[in-house]
Amino acid sequence: MNNRVPAAAIEIIALTKRYGQGKPAVDNINLRIASGSYCCLLGPSGCGKSTTLRMIAGHELASEGDILLENRNITDLPAAQRGTAMMFQSFALFPHLSALDNVAFSLKMKGMRKAERMAQAQDLLDRVAMGQLADRKPAELSGGQQQRVALARALITKPKVLLLDEPLSALDPFLRIQMRAELRRWQKELGLTFIHVTHSQEEAMALADTMVVMNHGVIEQVGSPYEVYNCPASEFVARFMGGHNVIETATGKVGVRTDQLQVVPAADAKANAEHNKMALITDVEYQGTYVLLGLQNPGTSVTASTTAEISVMLSESTFTQRPYAVGETVQLQWRADAAHPLPH
Questions:
Q1: Which DSSP state fits 48?
Q2: Where in the sequence is the domain holding 51, given as residue range(s)?
Q3: Last residue of a domain, one of 237, 259, 280
Q4: How many domains does the chain have?
Q5: pLDDT in tens, 62-111
Q6: Per-residue DSSP letter, 219
């Protein structure tokens, strides 16, 4: 039986970043990122994900701890000597240079002969389907085209790890979906390790082999998208990932997915239902293929400012057969195996 742990492209050991005397921005985190994997660092603004990425890149100095790339300690090395490359949110292309010159720029700084660096830059532009636009300047390119140029520029240094700092956030929703599919394809074709910072749960779920959920400078959970979504390790993860409700029961706190709750009219409620909770409907949202109900503890007066504590997703056909209205009291029911225990 082979129990060998997969090789780590990046290993972070007790990594901490402090600014002044306050609470650390990154607080003693440990993480292994498998070689050749797509890892997403995910969390709300200020959780420490971008600071972690910048420390890996060498754009921020670690206050404590170590960063290893393929077992080589790179913690104190300059960014150019680490074997990583960064792809920024703004793409950071030189506006006065053509796409070809943008991609070739770092090789020019290293003193490579013009013919050789241009050939390498053209080859990379061809690989990202931008070869025919090599002479255009950034202002003459769409957002998606600029991203491809930025990717080619990052890859020309032949990094072992590519770091992506919210690379899709500046794109419109349609292009964002298209470009995340391309990022995933490029990562698989190149066989590189990608570490991608995002605040979008949907983006991380679509891209990642491994998700790292951060909050207040610490790691709340590491796992596959399936593991993190279906088995949240904390109340924070359950709420942040969306699609979950955190419900207090007689035996403790549990997480139940919105699509695994059933709604029963109060008149039909069963007093002896083992897994149930009475609730008041405060919101009804039609979403096409499903209807989302927002619910609150009974006894709440429903106003425009009422905040739903629980969400239930009903299929359109289920809602059509028995519509529900704001102000109606219902019983929530769920199967025992649908409830995931959460630590206090």
A1: S
A2: 8-83+159-237
A3: 237
A4: 3
A5: 999 999 999 999 999 999 899 999 887 777 889 999 999 999 998 898 89
A6: E
